[in-house]
Design goal:
Structural class: mainly alpha
Organism: Streptomyces calidiresistens
Shape: globular
Largest sheet: 2 strands, parallel
Strand order of the largest sheet: 1-4
Number of helices: 7
Domain NADAR: 58-201
Catalytic activity: 5-amino-6-(5-phospho-D-ribosylamino)uracil + H2O = 5,6-diaminouracil + D-ribose 5-phosphate; 2,5-diamino-6-hydroxy-4-(5-phosphoribosylamino)-pyrimidine + H2O = 2,5,6-triamino-4-hydroxypyrimidine + D-ribose 5-phosphate
Distance between the termini: 22 Å
Radius of gyration: 17 Å
Protein name: DUF1768 domain-containing protein
Region (Disordered): 1-29
Length: 206
């Protein structure tokens, strides 16, 4: 039975049948499979817990404030982790240090877009793995966030950002096309990366 926050009680086995890419989601749609989506997008500064302190869909955002430590560094958000590792990947240690010192994930993102020595093909090969590693650390460090993510296990996680056609779907959650992967304007890489994280945490018995 679904809850108001989009999570559900776990039923063994369902998660293994979920798509892990947009192409797989489109194929499932063509085959007539009923996919259940959980839309998230931390817009308008909505990157903190609700008044009662419980996490909701916005905690899935890269900009959600939940400091964690990985690879010997502390990251204020998963966005900081992604952009610092982007800089390290291309040997730009100076930008990585500036990302780590950034006070806002938006600043970290801006710095990450200016990484020296950037190679698009290499980034395409490595970006999903980097984001998975960062979010494994983020959700692994906090029991409340981990429990929230695991409770979404029967849902396809979808970043309903109208501004992002790589990590999101290029549509808002209330767009009539948001529930049809074939109509998405973006790849939803973040949503599928978070599903990788969810699977890994579930297999750990977290």
């Amino acid at each position: 039975m679904g809850r108001a926050d989009g999570t559900e009680r776990a039923r063994p086995g369902d998660a293994s049948r979920l798509p892990t890419t947009r192409e797989e989601a489109e194929a499932a749609e063509r085959d007539g499979r009923r996919l259940r989506f959980l839309f998230f997008w931390g817009s308008s500064g909505d990157h903190r817990p609700s008044a009662d302190g419980t996490p909701g869909p916005a905690c899935l955002s890269q900009w959600w404030e939940a400091p964690f430590t990985a690879d010997g560094h502390t990251f204020p958000t998963a966005e900081h982790h992604m952009m610092a590792h982007k800089a390290w990947l291309f040997g730009d240690g100076e930008t990585a240090e500036r990302v780590l010192a950034a006070r806002h994930p938006g600043e970290a993102k801006r710095l990450g877009r200016a990484v020296r020595g950037f190679d698009e093909e290499e980034w395409r090969r490595r970006r999903r793995g980097i984001v998975v590693c960062g979010n494994l650390a983020k959700f692994g460090a906090r029991a409340d966030l981990r429990s929230y993510l695991l409770a979404t296990r029967h849902r396809v996680l979808v970043e309903a950002s109208p501004l992002d056609r790589v990590w999101g779907i290029g549509l808002t959650a209330d767009d009539p096309d948001a529930g049809s992967p074939a109509a998405w304007r973006g790849a939803n890489l973040l949503g599928f990366a978070l599903m990788d994280v969810r699977t890994a945490l579930s297999q750990r018995g977290a």
